[in-house]
Amino acid sequence: MTSKAVAFIAFLLIGSGLLAGVLPVTSSGRDCGSAFVESRITSLDDVSIRLTGCKDVRNLVRIPVIVLIAAGAATLIAAGAVNAKEEREERLRKADK
After folding, report:
1. Mean pLDDT, range 16-22, rounded to an integer
2. Is the pTM above the cut of 0.85?
3. How many degrees, rounded to 5, is the angle at CA 89 between CA 87 and CA 94?
4. Side-chain half-sphere of 49: how many Cα atoms within 13 Å?
5. CA atoms within 13 Å, Cβ hemisphere of 57
C-alpha cells in the first residue's frame, strides 16, 4: 500500500471522528450538545436532566470519537513511516543504476 493511500485512510478516520464529535446528541428528547461541546441550559428544569442523562450520553459518544481520532493519528504516523521506506527504496534504486 502506498503512503498516499495510508494517509487517505488516516484522514478518513480523523474526519469521521471529528464529525461524530460535533454531531448533536439527545437524551430523553432533550438537546445535550455534542461529544465536545455541551449545550446551553435554558431553564432550571433542564439542569437536572442534563446533569444526569446528558453526561452519560456525551461520555458514551466521546469514547468512539476519541478512538477514531487516535486510530487516525496512529495511521497517519504509519503513513509517514511507509513514505520514509518508499523514499529510501527509491534512493537505493537510483544509486544502483
Report:
1. 93
2. no
3. 95
4. 15
5. 22
Of 21, 34, 7, 17, give the one whose Cα is nearest residue 69: 17
The percent of residues in the chain predicted with pLDDT above 90, rounded, is 46
Phi, psi of 24 (to 5 degrees): -70, 145
User: Residues 8, 60: contact at Cβ < 8 Å?
Assistant: no
Residue with cell 484522514: 11
Contact between residue 57 and residue 25 where contact means Cβ atoms under 8 Å apart: yes
Sort 68 into a burial class: Cβ within 10 Å, 0-12 / 13-18 / 19+.
buried
CA distance 69 to 18: 7
Distance, in Å, from the CA atom of 61 to the CA atom of 59, rounded to the nearest integer, reads 5
Winning range, highest mean pLDDT, from 31-35, 83-87, 93-97:
83-87
